[in-house]
Every structure is written in structure tokens, then in C-alpha cells.
TrEMBL record:
<dbReference type="GO" id="GO:0015293">
    <property type="term" value="F:symporter activity"/>
</dbReference>
<keyword id="KW-0813">Transport</keyword>
<dbReference type="InterPro" id="IPR003663">
    <property type="entry name" value="Sugar/inositol_transpt"/>
</dbReference>
<keyword id="KW-0472">Membrane</keyword>
<feature type="transmembrane region" description="Helical">
    <location>
        <begin position="451"/>
        <end position="471"/>
    </location>
</feature>
<keyword id="KW-0762">Sugar transport</keyword>
<feature type="transmembrane region" description="Helical">
    <location>
        <begin position="136"/>
        <end position="157"/>
    </location>
</feature>
<feature type="domain" description="Major facilitator superfamily (MFS) profile">
    <location>
        <begin position="25"/>
        <end position="475"/>
    </location>
</feature>
<feature type="transmembrane region" description="Helical">
    <location>
        <begin position="349"/>
        <end position="373"/>
    </location>
</feature>
<feature type="transmembrane region" description="Helical">
    <location>
        <begin position="199"/>
        <end position="221"/>
    </location>
</feature>
<feature type="transmembrane region" description="Helical">
    <location>
        <begin position="21"/>
        <end position="42"/>
    </location>
</feature>
<dbReference type="GO" id="GO:0015145">
    <property type="term" value="F:monosaccharide transmembrane transporter activity"/>
</dbReference>
<feature type="transmembrane region" description="Helical">
    <location>
        <begin position="421"/>
        <end position="445"/>
    </location>
</feature>
<dbReference type="InterPro" id="IPR020846">
    <property type="entry name" value="MFS_dom"/>
</dbReference>
<feature type="transmembrane region" description="Helical">
    <location>
        <begin position="80"/>
        <end position="99"/>
    </location>
</feature>
<feature type="transmembrane region" description="Helical">
    <location>
        <begin position="318"/>
        <end position="342"/>
    </location>
</feature>
<feature type="transmembrane region" description="Helical">
    <location>
        <begin position="385"/>
        <end position="409"/>
    </location>
</feature>
Amino acid sequence: MAVGIGIESEGGQYNGKMTSFVVFSCMMAAMGGVLFGYDIGISGGVTSMESFLKKFFPEVDRKMEEDKDISNYCKFDSQLLTSFTSSLYLAGLVASLFASSMTKSLGRRPSILFSGLVFIVGAALGGAAMNVYMLILGRVLLGVGVGFANQAVPLYLSEMAPSNYRGAINNGFQFSVGIGGLTANLINFGTQKIKSGNGWRISLAMAGFPASILTLGAFFLPETPNSLIQRGNSHQLVDEMLQRIRGTPNVQSELADLIKASEIAKSIDNPFKNIMRRKYRPQLVMAIAIPFFQQVTGINVIAFYAPVLFRTIGLGESASLFSAIMTGAVGLVTTFISMLVVDKLGRRVLFIAGGLQMFVSQVIVGGLLAALLGDQGTVSKGYSYLLLVLICVYVAGFGWSWGPLGWLVPSEIFPLEIRSAGQSITVATNFVFTFIIAQTFLAMLCHLKAGIFFFFGGWVVVMTVFVYYFLPETKNLPIEKVERVWREHWFWKRVVGEDDEEEERKVGDFQSSL
């Protein structure tokens, strides 16, 4: 018998419970986020380890040790070093485009399984790397795994979750990213102390551990009802699965909406072409704007290069890694808070409050660095810790806003007929700008210096204004009914209105034929 939290039926919501079956399935699927987070955290840590730099990037190590005239901001400026970090995201971009077709035609579960298998191979190559080419090949395979995971996991979570708890469950993906990042920072802190100088091998190879858990777990994951009906399974099978995951036999309303969405989806031959239609313009804009804004918050300044950044302001190797642990812990805690409140406060409140918090902290950090850190000088220990606190404030703002919501909102706004295509565009956009930030950040840090924080702070202002005016609230709406918010929005209703009238006529014809 399913046990869980009862869900009242209000405002068009379906009957059901938060069942233990759903909770355990989503916990296992969310391990895909651990892969992503671990890899983000591990790369920044190993690139600050002297033994790793001496073996693969001796030019960077030489600049740190011998070149006393080089600017503090330019010590790590190496295109080969940034290629190590960014190659994963370029591979993830390409993989996400193929993942869309696989996720649609074979289901969410096979995509999750494939991501785990490829990630294991990539982790093994990275840990055993003998030269920089082997190292980057391992990163490319990790990127393929992350590309498939980021395509399938957010969709899986949003489709399995009851509408009242969809925000909390989907935010579990970003929470898992935080767990992966914090775990990576803890492992880096420990392996950096290994006297043989091979600690970085352990750090890179350990990525295979969460990937193994995900791969084994994927064999036991159920497929989502949305995917089952989209791939032509019988209505009886879908009905049985709905009853199992909702913990109630009264699932007729949700099943009817799934059937309706499936019939519309079957009439679409090319979802990528279809998403360009005027009626899907709001979703297309959000599929591009939200992941773009998520990256230009500047979070990857912290996520990729936190230890590098802390070494820039004068902390030692070990202290820099420990500081990265602190920021990772802050991000994890605040993402958990977001899980608890997102379905009560809504998406817009968290976006706007988090944006204001990030902007203020970035401006103060930039101002302090501009005033205190010269090209060859150092920041006093007291100011270093003040900067660490301010960076933690910034990470907290991201942790309960753009971090989890940047994945949640795109995964819940697409109707079934364009859902895989829309998620693919979201993931691809995310990888494009993650790659650009990863590849250019160290050069930007060298040229902009403290101004890098003002650069990202300006973008935070833009995205906060964008959310305030153009993003409607989607909390507590069933996933197959979210599209109604665009028809009621002050701006988007003028964009989608004409196409909607024709679509409503088609839906009415379909309903009358049932």
C-alpha cells in the first residue's frame, strides 16, 4: 500500500498522495544531479593542486611559483587549462541534442541509464590519465553523460511529482547537484594532502561512484506515465502506473489530460519545428533566457574556480579548498530551504529575492577587491574571511533562487508535444553558456580583475527585471495545465492569443469525439 502525504484537489489539481514509491524513484533519478555537481566541484579543486598542474599544466605552475611580476588575476590564465574544464560542457551540448530524441522515443529511464554508463567510463579515463589528451577525452565522456542526465532527470522528476510538490521534488535535482559539489570539495580537501602527489587521480576517479549508483538504480526505475502514453502504451498500463505512483484509484482526471496531451503530441511530426510556432513563443523564450541568465549570474566563477579564486585573494592551497567546502555547504543548505518553500512562496518571489541578494553581495565583493587587492599585493587575512562571508551570501542567494529554479521552471512549462524538444533547447543553451563562461572566465579575470563581479552583477539586475515583468507564476498547477498561465499574462496573452483560438477548436473537436 502506498503511503505518503495527502494532496487535496483544488484549483484543477489531481487526486493523489506523495507516495513512498515516488519519493524513492525521484531520489534515485536525482543522482544524475550528483554527477553534474561532483564534476563541477572536482574540476575547480584539482586545477588548484600543484601536483596536478605540474604534470599537465607546467606553464601555469611556473607562473605561480616563479613569475613574481605577473598580476594576481592572471596566474591561472591558460587556454589549455580552461579547455580541461570547458571540454565537458561542449560535449554535453552536443550530447543533449541527441538525448532529446532518445528521451522521447525510448523514454526517460534509458537516457538516465545511458548517462550513468558513459560517466563511469569517463571517470576511469580521468583517474588513469597519463597525458593531457587522455585527461580531456575523459572529460568529454563525462560531458556526454551529463548531457543525457540533464536532459532526462528534470523531466522525470517533474512528470513523476504530484503538482503540489513538483517544485520541491524538481528542486531535488539542484539539491543533488549541491551534494555532488560539496562531496567533491571534501574529497579534494583530503586528496590534496596525499604526499605522493596522486591525490588528483582519486578525485577524478571517484566520479564513478555516484555514476555506478545511478546506473544500478536506473534498472529499477519506473517509466513516467507521460512517457508511457507518449510512446503508445495502452491506457490500462498508464492507468495502473498512475494509481501506483499517486496512491489512489481516482486518477481518471489526470489520465484524461495525459490522453489529450498525447493525441496532440502525435499530430506533431517535428517538435523542434513546432516549437517555433507563435503559440509556443513564451516557452521558447524561457527555454533560452532562463538557462542563459542562470549562467551569467556568475555562479560558475564560484563553482568551477572557487579554490583558484580564493588563492588569487591570498589564501593558501589547503585554505582555498576548505573555503570551497564552506561555499558548497551554504549552497546545499539554501537549496534545501528552497525545496521546502518553493511550492508555498512560488517561483517568482524566490527569483526576485535571490536576485537582489546576489546583486548586493557581488557589488560589495567587487568593490572590496578593487580597493584592496592590487596586481602583486595580497589581501589581509581578516579581509579574506570577510570576502569569503560575502561570497557565501551570494551563493545562498543563488541556492534558493536561480540554482534550483533554473532547472525547475523550464521542465514544467512545456506541453507534452514539445517537452523533449524544449528541454533539449534548455540544456543545450545551458551548456553553450556554461562552456563560454568556463572557457573565458580566467581570461576575463585577468583583464577585468575585480570588475568581473560588477559584470555579473549587472546581468543579475537584468534577469531580475525580466522575471518581474515576463515570468508568470506556475506553482501548484498540474504539469499538463501550466500552459494556461501564458493566456492570462499581461504580455504573453497578446503573443499566443491567435494560435490558441485555433488550438482550442482542435481540442474541442477531439473531446467531442471521445
